[in-house]
């Protein structure tokens, strides 16, 4: 019901989910399309860069998000 009155409610709910998730979970949510409904690729990438230390796995996850978002 809240989503009816608060336009960005679902985005806030996904943000809570992202903040509690592992990098693998975030990547899965993006690949399955759920996050793409509310977030742009750059928003998700910025969150990943803020939440996770620089690593090969982070670089690969970001590259995968960019690849999936292109097509």
From TrEMBL:
Example GO CC term: the record gives:
cytoplasm
Q: Which GO biological process entries does UniProt record here?
A: endoplasmic reticulum to Golgi vesicle-mediated transport; mitotic spindle assembly checkpoint signaling
Annotated ranges, domain ZW10 C-terminal helical: 5-65
InterPro entries found in the cross-reference section: Zw10/DSL1_C_sf, ZW10_C_2
Q: Which parts form a coiled-coil structure per UniProt?
A: none
Recorded protein name is: Centromere kinetochore protein zw10
């Amino acid at each position: 019901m809240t989503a009816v009155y608060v336009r960005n409610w679902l985005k806030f709910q996904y943000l809570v989910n992202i903040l509690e998730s592992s990098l693998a979970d975030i990547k899965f949510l993006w690949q399955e399309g759920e996050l793409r409904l509310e977030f742009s690729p750059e928003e998700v990438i910025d969150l990943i860069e803020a939440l996770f230390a620089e690593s090969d796995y982070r670089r690969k996850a970001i590259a995968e998000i960019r690849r999936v978002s292109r097509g």
